[in-house]
Design brief:
Number of helices: 3
Helix content: 10-25%
Shape: elongated
Number of strands: 22
Distance between the termini: 81 Å
Number of domains: 2
Oligomer: single chain
Structural class: alpha/beta
Strand content: 35-45%
């Protein structure tokens, strides 16, 4: 009886249950912990690989943006080279095979888009827990798509692509633009506003840096951005002909230039003058879009000039532009000149008020200075020139684009702009490179 009582007592005793339960559940606990560790490792590896794919896709898109005229295989080569360079620097995950790079992706939302670059990366990751079951490494595949997109409204562009500042605003200069400013300068101070200057423009964007400044008002600063393309690069080189001496003008002159003026060429609706020093009152008014070629020398709006030009584009060029770029005409606008220019609303130079031949020597200075009162509706295109806006100049623009190698505003000059999108050449879109998938 004593033995039976002890056995019954032992069977009723619950003190040892924890040991049995713990032993039974230990494999589940170990398995759960191992699964959690492997899951975290997969997540971290995928995140790291995705970051590499994102960076590589952006690099590929930037590469084709820097070579905008490339097409087909050449364009794909630029994208692939950009992706390869970026992966060599920014990817620490060993890849399984080579990266798949597609310019004009074969699949997805942006399939066939030549401005898009798709990158697919694959890597294997050994897992501590699952390796006990001989399942082999986990295969991780990620992809990213970056694309060149164009949006926003810009009206000032510096094509400087070296380390010199592209846009400088100093003194008491005032820019009230209602549009964006951009430069391709790689300088750490690619755009600067100093002194008592005032800049109302947004965005302010550069390939290089854009130091912050209290001189900016309502501006979004976008440093280290994509290279901007010349919006007027598609216009052909000028082909002037039948050039004649310019009309005689003087301080007391009052002349009208039209289709009856000697030298007018009805074939392309143009006049070509061998340089021109403008004095007195000059009216250029045409019913059709008209080109005024300035063949060499200088187009000089003197302090005694009072000029009204409607439906007109002034083209600074030379009949010897290819063999002698230095012969291409230049522009000067002196103090007290009163100049109103309305660019054509149709034709080859739609919305262009001044056009400098792209074959001109690099680094010439084009200057508007003094107290000139100027109203311009249209683009001022000086892709090779250092454009300076000086002194007490006061320029109003209905719809302006100002494109130069470098842009420099100083003195007490004021530039105002109001583009409603219905006249002249509208503000051009900026170029951005973004992840889109």
């Amino acid at each position: 009886m004593t033995f039976l009582k002890r056995l019954k007592t032992l069977l009723r005793d619950e003190c040892g249950n924890a040991l049995f339960v713990g032993a039974a559940t230990m494999p589940i606990l170990i398995g759960g912990a191992g699964l959690a560790i492997d899951t975290v490792q997969i997540s971290l590896a995928k995140r790291e690989l995705q970051r590499a794919a994102d960076s590589a896709a952006l690099a590929g898109a930037y590469a084709i943006n820097q070579n905008p005229s490339s097409t087909g295989t050449a364009r794909t080569t630029y994208a692939t080279n950009g992706v390869t360079r970026d992966l060599a620097i920014n990817n620490d995950v060993p890849l399984t095979g080579s990266a798949i790079v597609q310019n004009a992706p074969a699949t997805g939302t942006y399939a066939g888009n030549a401005n898009a670059v798709r990158v697919q990366l694959t890597a294997n990751r050994n897992l501590a827990f699952f390796s006990f079951f001989n399942t082999g490494p986990a295969t991780i595949t990620v992809e990213a798509t970056a694309m060149i997109v164009r949006e926003g409204g810009f009206c000032l562009l510096s094509l400087e692509d070296g380390n010199a500042p592209g846009v400088t605003v100093g003194g008491n200069a005032t820019l009230d633009l209602g549009c964006g400013i951009s430069t391709n300068s790689t300088s750490s101070s690619a755009i600067t506003a100093t002194g008592s200057s005032s800049v109302t423009a947004s965005p302010i964007m550069a390939v290089g840096g854009v130091p912050s400044s209290s001189n900016y008002h309502g501006s979004t600063l976008v440093p280290y951005s994509a290279v901007q393309q010349d919006p007027l690069a598609g216009l052909p080189n000028p082909t002037p002909s039948n050039c004649v001496a310019p009309p005689a003008t003087g301080p007391q002159a009052n002349i009208t230039i039209n289709t009856s003026t000697p030298g007018y060429n009805s074939a392309d609706r143009s006049l070509c003058f061998n340089g021109w020093e403008v004095k007195g009152t000059v009216n250029l008014s045409f019913a059709e879009p008209t080109i005024i070629y300035i063949n060499g020398g200088e187009l000089d709006f003197t302090s005694q000039a009072n000029v009204t030009a409607n439906n007109v584009t002034f083209v600074l060029t030379s009949t010897n532009a290819t063999s002698n770029p230095a012969s291409i005409a230049s522009l000067k606008m002196n103090g007290q000149a009163d100049v109103t220019i309305n660019s054509p609303t149709s034709g080859i130079y739609t919305g262009v008020a001044f056009y400098e031949d792209r074959r001109a020597p690099l680094g010439r200075t084009t200057r508007i200075n003094g107290g000139s009162g100027t109203t311009i509706n249209g683009a001022l295109y000086f892709p090779r020139a250092y454009f300076e806006y000086n002194g007490g100049a006061d320029m109003a623009a209905t719809c302006i684009q100002l494109i130069g190698r470098r842009l420099d505003f100083r003195g007490n000059g004021t530039v105002t702009n109001s583009c409603d999108g219905t006249t002249g050449r509208n503000n051009f879109q900026g170029t951005y490179v973004r992840l889109v998938g």
